[in-house]
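Hi R.,

Here's the chain you asked about this morning:
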Amino acid sequence: MTSVNTIKRLACTTLGAIVAVLLIVGFGGIASAEPTPAPVVAAEQAAPVAVPVAACMAPGDSVQLRSAIAAVLGTTIGAIVGLPIFLFGAIPGAIIGGVVGFMVGSTWYALDAGQAPQGC
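And the predicted structure, written out as tokens:
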């Protein structure tokens, strides 16, 4: 009887994790892709000139910092997802989550560093 309960908990945890990731990715993509609406300007008013602002990297921001943060988050999520398979599932889940998190963090830094203007 305990194996049936374990399988049910595993299925619920996995399904919950998948739904959570899909919601985060879906709403994050919508929020970042949606442009801000242009203000309505009366005909007699002159429209202000938009000056692009350089988005520089924050001081102290490094690939090691972002990778470490993402690896810690990935390890934590992997361990929590692996818990329904007892301790034997939490350890590989934490390792895999940490590696994936590290890769995401380093890619995230590389993308931001590539988009930052030179000379910031």
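The chain has a mean pLDDT of 75.

Let me know if you need anything else.
M.
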